[in-house]
Amino acid sequence: MNEHPFKILYLMTDPFGMGGVQSDLKALGPYFVSRGHEVVVACPSGDQVDVLTRGGVTHIPFSVHFRTPGQFGDQARKLRSLIERVQPTVLAPQSIRASWICHAAAKNLPLARVTTIHNIHSNMNALWAGVILNRASHLVIFESDHEHRRITRLGLSRRKTRVIPSGIDTETFYPDPEARQKMRAALPDLGPDDVVFGCVARLSEEKAHDNLLASYAVVRKSYPKTRLVLVGDGPLRGEIESRARELGIAPFVHFAGQQRNVREWLNLFDVFVLASTRESLPRAAREAMACGLPVIATRVGATREAVRDGENGFLVPPAQVDSFARAMIHLLFDPDLRVRMGRESRRMIDARFSQSTWLADNESVYKVAGSLAGRFSSREIGPRLLDPAVTPCS
Length: 394
Fold this sequence. Notes:
The protein is about 45% helix and about 15% strand. It has helices at about 20-35, 50-55, 70-85, 95-105, 125-135, 145-155, 175-185, 210-220, 235-245, 260-270, 285-290, 320-330, 335-350, 355-370, 380-385; strands at about 5-10, 40-45, 60, 90-95, 110-115, 140, 160-165, 195-200, 225-230, 255, 270-275, 295-300, 315. It is elongated and about 65 Å long.
């Protein structure tokens, strides 16, 4: 049993389905439970809640939606009631919006507020992020240097921050020759020499599947022994399927839909491709790297922290269809380069994105934060949590 257990209440604004934040909590929550801590996640229900509950995490359906000051006040009162019922030692909002309402609900309560910022897609939200987080949070964890630099430049005190890149579970994601053989045999009409480009991503606007399809259409003209596999689902699926038909590549694009056996699909791929116009530190790309794949991605957000151009893949400007296609063709015609880059991808995961380090660093922060709860006022917790001797910050 842990000598200094904490009780953490995570607050999310999105349903608990597939996504980067949800993937993080599916790893963190059960790990903390196994270490003797209590974990509660408050958010709208989703199709991945059962993964949490099987790991001993408590899920409480809770929705954060407000457009007016009156609605904000009502939501804050409901959250305050939830906090008083759960009695956490750490309040852990997972976004700017969640941080602000946590501040309104708990600013006078003697518990620590530790925000995690995964990504901030809206430039308008980013402009206010520093001001809000300075006031709303005792400590802010960033998952990437990119978002950390961005928000500290916009006013967030560096002293209140720590960068802890999320880790990848290499016991779940790894090169799997048996899975590769099985998946290649199952994909209709796939030849033994066909090269498979693949993407795992939600079918939504920021993932720019339309650009990816256009790039693949260029590739097909040069090298017909190829396939494109898209794993994921989302609001734009109909439009993306229609676009594939318009480009004349529909017979060669496989829409796999949402899948739970992601490792097996990744091992089907020869190259992982991600054409996003907005990203933070893309988890799917790093899971592909753990499976030993080279990655072609757009140079957006924190993607360059995972993909080193020319080392484990290629980075190209967003929305540059021809440039992306050239990178695909480069790897298409050089299988030895694919192998070398894939090995470098796996090495980088082991060296820079260790899940054990990520889990331990988060636990260390929350243990310190939890130890202060109830012993000091909300105003006193902040300075004590930021003491470098207690919680070293990046």
